[in-house]
Target: Putative nuclease HARBI1
Amino acid sequence: MAVPIAVLDCDLLLYGRGHRTLDRFKLEDVTDEYLVSTYGFPRQFIYHLVDLLGASLSRPTQRSRAISPETQILAALGFYTSGSFQTRMGDAIGISQASMSRCVANVTEALVERASQFIHFPEDEATVQSLKDDFYGLAGMPGVLGVVDCTHVAIKAPNAEDLSYVNRKGLHSLNCLMVCDARGVLLSAETHWPGSLSDCTVLQRAALTRQFQTELHKNGWLLGDSSFFLQTWLMTPLHIPETPAEYRYNMAHSATHNVIERTFRTIRSRFRCLDGSKGTLQYSPEKSSHIILACCVLHNISLEHGLDVWSLPATGHMEQPEEEYEQMESMDSEACRIRQQLLLSHFS
Model:
């Protein structure tokens, strides 16, 4: 029985001597509406990704032909935005499901290599001040450099013995720590933490904490919910507000912090591979972490190009494990003093 060569020799399709490519699919032959509905993004955005990632996706080998960077990017976007290696999607661009899987791996690697280029805190004073001004405009909370929270993404069980990825719901997941600005642009994304770790533990161990303890605490702070400890650089809500000023502080805190929840929802809406609707990510924790980070990079690039993620429809997603909140009012006396001064100066 004849077996199609495309299924047997994926590497031959992906890379080739002389960079000759298999151009099965032409972007100019289809409408923007088709591209958005099938791959999640319009033509000009996809062209930009080709320019950005093309060199990384055109590595020469001793084989004879290669899949073009354009087709590799379409395959990856199709997976990120649908959550599955559907036969019809591979058929649409002329490659097998096995080749699609390899394309996703290549594009994911290329995006992760560029994560620090697109996900970072601003450094110059003017941009930092603009960041604070944008947050202040939301609900009157001063000095905010970002809002921080964690979200879980379901993954397949690494192995029967490894319980470190089992979260409070009894599901295997990665607990991803992220910070965003007032527009939903990600400023930090740590996507590799095991799902068994609480949000507070993740933050304690995170590179983000070392950043703020050593570099970024400059007359400003992050906002975090009650799952985190109050710190000099991290303002949390009051556990039991009593005075009008404390209620106003908590209301402003909640309205401002809500930006990160909206950001999580819109990332899941655009990148359906993360929302659990098509099942868990069928990869190792390391590869799953890279896929999540690649989607974060694409999220920021899309905002940079003016794509309105807030208007995306909401989708179902993995139920997030509930954190056990504790009263953390007196953990850091200096942090308590800073928050009290904030209450007196802006909410009294």
The longest strand covers residues 144-154.
